[in-house]
Amino acid sequence: MKKVIITGATGFIGKRITEELITRGDEVTIFTRSVENAKQKIPNAYDYVEWNPELNDWSHKLEDKDAVVHLAGENVMAKRWNLKHKKNILSSRVEGTRSLVNAIGRLKNKPEVFITASAVGYYGNSEKPVNENSEPGEDFLAEVVNAWEKEAGNVESYGVRRVSIRTGIVLDANEGALVPMINQFKFFVGGPIGKGKQWFPWVHIDDVVGIFLFALNNQNVRGALNASSPNPLRMKEFCKTLGNIMHRPSLFKVPAFTIKILFGEAADVLLNGAQVIPDRTIKAGYKFKFESAEESLRNLLHK
After folding, report:
1. pLDDT tens digit string along 281-297?
2. pTM attached to this predicted model
3. Bridge partners (DSSP) listed for residue 29
4. Of 11, 44, 74, 165, most Cβ neighbours within 10 A?
């Protein structure tokens, strides 16, 4: 049994990870801005702590824990980007991480590992294959993720192992990017965004959870790990696969100018992508449960 602190536990990915930790018998303490909300969504945690990164009245709760899993951060696509939202996207990740790292540094008995969420947005827009050793991109999200990971890396100066999980586009039948795509195909209006030539670094939710637990369990794992399928597809290929499984055509492209009108600068997240390969994840010994998009989609759609 491990004693684990987790932030962002009520989010899409965080909830699944937390439930898995509790199911396997770990002692899970949830750091949250709303204790009542966390108790409602995840009623079986060991403890709930009101967490405000700007205050340190929670830092003693980190003592004698085996691991800290940090997932909290402003939703990137929650609203149209403006200067305020972009500032919140950056500060929620960097300042929240800094607060936890500084608190860990003051502990007498530090955790063995600090695992943080990250994103394949680190690579920006790339036609060439990229892996965990590749240089960061140059767009806004790449700058955010790079700053985020550097902040997390400071925990290593305290002798704590650090792992940053660069998550791709997570596939789940109930939440996330796949849900609106499924609904569009149901009504025969499915198809790629823009020209569909952008890379779509997908990953099954079970593999995201699996990689986080793999990083938690294996003391030889450190640094960045890509949580994305070994077989990324271009968006048009992914949509064609989804359409074939649902017995629907993939004909209705959403024009790039429409996405730009709706999302502004954030449209780049949807119109661009990178050919992400999880080299270090595989070499570390993680075995993907779902390596092909067809297999993954059939599992989620029960086809």
Report:
1. 999 999 999 999 999 99
2. 0.95
3. 5, 47
4. 165
Which range (58-72, 94-108, 175-189, 247-261) has the least confidence? Answer: 247-261
In a domain, 256, yes or no: no
User: What domain count does the chain have?
Assistant: 1
Predicted pLDDT of residue 203: 98
Which residue range forms the structural domain that includes residue 92?
A: 3-171+201-229
State the CATH number of the domain containing residue 163.
3.40.50.720
Give the other-Cβ count within 10 Å of 126's Cβ.
18
Q: How many CB atoms within 10 Å of residue 74?
A: 17
35-44: Cβ within 8 A, 24+ apart: 37/10, 38/9, 38/10, 41/9, 41/10, 41/15, 42/9, 42/10, 42/15, 42/18
How many angstroms separate the CA atoms of 90 and 69, rounded? 19
* Angle subtended by helix axes 178-186 and 235-246, to nearest 10: 50
Instruction: Tell me, yes or no, whether 164 lies in a domain.
Output: yes
